[in-house]
Design goal:
Elements: H1 8-55, H2 60-106, H3 120-134
Length: 157
Amino acid sequence: MEEFPLTEEQEVELAALQPREAHRKQQMKAKSARHRRVRRAEADRVAELEELAGRAPLTEEQEAELAALQPKVVQRKQQNTERAAKDYQTRKAAADRVAELGELVGGGGGAGGGTGGAPAEGGAAETANEEKEREVLPDEKSCRRSGCGVGGVGVAD
């Protein structure tokens, strides 16, 4: 896409809009953080109440709290699992399409074939293995690659 210089009017408009947009983004970020904290606290409380229920009978208040929170937490967990599965399928389809197009371009060499000195099979095999290592499977809560830092952070939101 070609870039054209902005008119003076457009520059003024952009200067007026940028701070508002930055403020809106900051507000949304703060709101998301608050919601994340609430969801984590609810999940923690459900786990705590379930643990208590395993040791001794719950009080009426605790039973009511568990009955109110548990469906929300279970629903969120299911939504997160479905979202992870959808993301995985999307990434897998994109990787498959890249490999398919690479084979067409490189004459069967995969994604690494046909371009500037990259080994046809070695490069494609390494790339495919790296992609598999980074993928988060739908039934897993962390990356399979050791030390990547994905391990469950943000998954329980």
